[in-house]
Amino acid sequence: MTYQQPYDDESRYYSPQPQGKFDTKKLAINLTILGVLCAVITFAVVIVTDLIVSTISGWAEQGPAMAILVAIVAGLVGVCAGLLYIPVVGTGNENLFGVAILALTAAAIIVWVLFGGLLDGDWETILTLVAVICAGSTAYIAPRRIESARLR
């Protein structure tokens, strides 16, 4: 004798069981807000750094158009790098993700200093370094935003 649930039309469309590890709507909102905040902070830091570099070096400033472009790229790269945390969730290696992001950011900074022209006197390289640091900071912070969207 088999027991069957009473048939209900609504049961076909609504499943009370969560389908994944994360609330996708909350995850999308959290990461969008994080990306926008990263872009705003990066914009402000790049503008201030650009003014300082132009004052010290005597070169013309790049202006807000370049700062906007750098801020958008830093925000997108930071959030995309932070999304790499999702496959790490539940493996026991969650803390290593932060270490990996810091190591990759440090490696990118070292490579950019060595090959970007800063050692040759190109002060504009500092603006890119600021963007790399901001993108790395965003990727480092992203797991906290991703964990807040996790279904419990």
From TrEMBL:
Annotated TM spans: 27-53, 65-89, 96-119, 125-142
Top-level taxon in the UniProt lineage: Bacteria
Keyword entries, A-Z: Membrane, Transmembrane, Transmembrane helix
Protein name as annotated: Uncharacterized protein
